[in-house]
Each structure stands twice: as C-alpha cells, then as structure tokens.
Amino acid sequence: MNKQVYPVNQLRVFINTINDLSAELLLQEAMDEYNCKLYNDKIEEALLAKDEEKFMKYTNLLKELTDEDTDDSE
Fold this sequence. Notes:
Elements: H1 8-49, H2 52-73
C-alpha cells in the first residue's frame, strides 16, 4: 500500500512525454481526416472526368489510409 514518490523532474518528463504523444495523435488524426476528404474529392473529380488513372491512384491512396485506420483500432 506504499505509494511510490517520483522526483519532480521525472514527473515533469513523464507529463511532457504524454503531452507530446497526445499532440502527435491529434495531429495525425487531423491529417488523416483531411487526406480522406481530399482523396474522396479527387475520386469524384476523376469519375466526372472519366480519368481511370487518377481514379485508381486516389482510390488506392484512400484504401491505404483507411487500412491504416483499421490496423490501428485492432
């Protein structure tokens, strides 16, 4: 039942690390959301232009992005 007491410096380093990781996660999530919307827009443009090459390019990029999201949640 003894609580371990950490020196102040160790606690600060721990808190800074947690803050850095939280910021990285938020940034990555925002970037993924932005890219998902961008790829969907590009897919729509490719469909309207009947450009199969761009359609395949952006659907593959979107698939990679959504596969990464699926891998992270497992």
